[in-house]
Amino acid sequence: MTVYAAIHVTLALTLAPLLLGLINRIKAVFAGRHGPPLLQPYYDLIKLLGKGGVYSRTTTWVFRAGPLVTLAGLLVAIVLVPLGGIEALVAFPGDLLLFAYILGLGRFFTVLAALDTGSAFEGMGASREVQFSALAEPAMLLGLGALAVLARSTSLTELYGRVQVSAIAGPAGPAMILVATALFIVLLTENARIPIDDPNTHLELTMIHEVMVLDHGGVDLAFIQYGSSLKMWVLATLVTGLIVPVRTGRPGWDLAVGIVGQFVVAALVGVVESAMARLRLVRVPQLLTAASILAVVALILVVR
User: Fold this and answer.
1) Contact of 241 with 254, CB cutoff 8 Å
2) 37: how many CB neighbours lie within 10 A of its CB?
3) What pLDDT score does 204 carry?
4) For residues 150 and 242, what is the distance between their CA atoms, to the nearest angstrom?
5) Which of 13, 37, 52, 167 is most buried, with most CB under 10 Å away?
6) What is the separation, in whole angstroms, between the first and last Cα of the chain?
7) Is 238 in contact with 185 (CB distance < 8 Å)?
8) Are 234 and 81 in contact (CB under 8 A)?
9) C-beta neighbour count of 152 within 10 angstroms
10) 53 dihedral zone (left: phi>0; alpha: psi -120 to 50; beta)
11) CA torsion 231→237→240→245, rounded to 10°?
12) What is the chain's alpha carbon radius of gyration, rounded to the nearest angstrom?
């Protein structure tokens, strides 16, 4: 299984930008446009990697460290998450908490890098990012906590190893559906997707994540964009394990099903972005609070 876990990590590093390409293509289809090529994210990364960085004299090492620390954290997160029936490359009791803290560390340095520019504009985006993240983290931890109670373990591999079709169809099914819904909302929030944020907008009053990276360019911006695709992959694995709980007993087939599940989740994100408008900022906390409530109800269902 360790071999297949290593294959999963390799595929994640290779295919993660393709998830964003699929989302953009689906949005284009809904809008009646031809849209960008499916491989456009790869073309953008190659172009950015060939450019040099431009740094303001008001910034410090924190500004340059932000993209690096965030990307490094996501690389660690990838080896901690299982994909369907494939165990994580690194698994141990308590890795659930390490996973949450690794994501928080990357966000922390992204916010610090935005504040380091001294721009009130980026400070506004950093403030919004922190506010919404503070509401999204409880939903994720409570949802994973419900799965931990079911599995009687704090390891992500064991949590998702217990999720099977029989479990979904059993008494724990409603709780797992609630957790999947809560985690999907967290995925939209953490990846700055509609209805929480619009990654394609540059309108001052609506920007959240994009405003924090406006001063980055070249290799730094490539790291940020690649990190965004990795975060999409990492959080999608949490949803895939619940909505595609197929366990064939054959690692190769399980890995293939998991990869297909990743693109199903990406397609679902594209459909949501095409069918919904961006929420007003005052409505976003309400949606995230609802996600936490769903996770709490799931926790109550599995504890009783």
Assistant:
1) no
2) 12
3) 58
4) 13
5) 167
6) 34
7) no
8) yes
9) 9
10) beta
11) -170
12) 19
Tokens of 127: 């403030």
**How many CB atoms are closer than 10 A to CB 23?**
26
CA distance 127 to 45: 28
Q: Which residues contact 151 (CB under 8 A, 6 or more apart)?
A: 158, 159, 161, 162
* E strand or H helix that includes residue 46: helix 40-49
Q: Identify the residue whose tokens are 């699929």.
A: 22
Rounded to whole angstroms, the Cα distance separating 173 from 158 reads 17
Query: Around Cβ 93, how many Cβ atoms within 10 Å?
Result: 10
- Taking the CA atoms of residue 246, residue 247, residue 252 and residue 253 in that order, the dihedral angle to the nearest 10 degrees is -40
What does each C-alpha distance from 194 to 83, 103, 144, 243 come to in angstroms? 25, 20, 23, 21
Contact status, residue 89 vs residue 181, Cβ threshold 8 Å? no
| Site of tokens 């965004």 | 228
Q: How far is CA 296 from the centre of its chain?
A: 21
Q: Which residue has the tokens 């303001």?
A: 56
Question: How far is 265 from 260, CA to CA, in rounded Å?
Answer: 9
Do 64 and 86 touch, CB atoms closer than 8 A? Answer: no
Rounded Cα distance between 63 and 216, Å, is 9
pLDDT in tens, 205-255: 557 777 888 888 899 999 999 999 999 999 999 999 898 887 777 888 889
CB atoms within 10 A of CB 200: 10
What whole-number distance in Å separates Cα of residue 201 and Cα of residue 22? Answer: 19
Positive or negative: CA dihedral 18, 20, 24, 29: positive
Report the amino acid identity of residue 68: L
pLDDT in tens, 257-279: 999 999 999 999 999 999 988 88
| Buried residues in 269-301 as b, exposed as e (16+ CB within 10 A) | bbebbeeeebbeeeebeebbeebbebbbbbbeb
